[in-house]
Amino acid sequence: MSDLPRKAVTRTAKLAALPLGFAGRATWGLGKRIGGRSAELVAREVQQRTAEQLFKTLGELKGGAMKLGQALSVFESALPEEIAGPYRAALTKLQEAAPPLPAGTVHAVLAERIGEDWREYFLEFEDKPSAAASIGQVHRGVWHDGREVAVKVQYPGAGEALLSDLAQLSRFARLLGPLVPGMDIKPLIKEMRERVSEELDYELEAQSQREHAEEFADDPDVVIPGVVHQSDQVLVTEWMDGIPLADVIADGTPEQRDRAGQLLARFLFSGPARTGLLHADPHPGNFRLLPPVDAPGDADAPHEVDGPEASPDPDGSGGTEGFSRADSSEEGGAVGAAGDWRLGVLDFGTVDRLPGGLPWTIGESLRMTLEGDAAGVYGRLRDEGFVKESIDLEPDEVLDYLLPIIEPAQVEEFTFSRGWLRDQAARIADPRSPAHQLGRQLNLPPSYLLIHRVTLSTIGVLCQLGAAVRLRDELEAWLPGFVAEDEESEEAGEAKEAGAGSESEEPEPEPVPGGDA
């Protein structure tokens, strides 16, 4: 496929063929078994063929089809290993690449959205995309002032295709259920549909990215590329090299895996606290592991754009002052000694706006669960609508349901793994288990939908990494309500007292020459 299929009938036909394909392969597999082949071998072949058709179709169609595929890709860790193997390669392909648009279509979009003289804005522009995603693809270029940039071009007809795909996919969402045990696919698709307008608005995306770039400008651990130029359907940002997180998952060293996992957890919790925004698309294609600031060849770290430089300026008359992301600082208590890998974050097209940071209820309920306060947790969950008024549950049973899920927060350092996530998924998905029966009676309030999905997705990536993470450190530093108010007051008082003490200590007077002894 070289272009985005735009006719609804074409896209619908391709998506509608998926359930038929699933059924056809099941029949094919039955025939093979009747022919004498083992059930295990046949099942593996059916799974392989299913994965190839499903994700080939989702990838080719881009739009909502590919977006769903990317969202599902982070949950492959929850699949049993004998099933995950055939799916994994097909799933992860969606995190970094997809069939590109032809150069002519890209040039037409640039001419329409930037102007017929769009080439004057660039010293270089690569027609071959460096990456393709659900609603747009990225081209590498050199801006007129010499900076390397990433040029994100939205597919023509992306909005129409996105809505059409998601409507069609929701009709057979149940058939996709086995891909992610314990997860209901239909609410995921519904939430995606509700955010279509935001996803397509590059002005909103540029604003969210600028806010993150400004807040994390001097951060030693997290790097956000600055916004260079934005117009309808075109977004130009600073180029960022680095190791794609998918490559770290596949071939990274233990040090890289642990560092990436720690910073991913830190960004999940610190982002809302520092910017009031939650980055809501945490699949591996949106993250890079960057070399330490003192590593050779790191001079090309992104630079922020200041003032007029964010606007198109072919004459070069705008300001060129900025600051280098490589000039990191230890201010604010951030952990980032020289020599540590850093996390680069891309794609701010979907964010959740949380002006006060993550809800206090999450931190408080998590703390109460760790403390074994069953009644307290149950009361908070009921107050927030997680337990409807018409439902009565035993607080101790709710606590038993939650404790295994929050195991990573119970210890100083937790090693995430596919095995651990599979156990959690199996516990919740098994209709015979108490966890499954209790889970079906819980409710997820709309205001928590995106937070819930982002948290689960991040955990999925941590399990893909197999990272050892000090999660509790990040919760204590960034999650409102996780540290009890009296503890916070005590710590603040001690700090204030220590500061006052140092100020009140006067140095001994120096002897005055010629004065009294």
From TrEMBL:
Family that this chain belongs to: Belongs to the protein kinase superfamily. ADCK protein kinase family.
Protein name: ABC transporter ATP-binding protein
Record lineage: Bacteria, Bacillati, Actinomycetota, Actinomycetes, Kitasatosporales
GO MF term (any one): ATP binding
PANTHER family: COENZYME Q8 (PTHR43851:SF3), PTHR43851
Record Pfam families: ABC1
Ranges where the record places region Disordered: 280-336, 482-517
Origin: domain of life: Bacteria
UniProt keyword annotations, A-Z: ATP-binding, Nucleotide-binding, Transferase
Residues covered by the ABC1 atypical kinase-like domain: 93-288
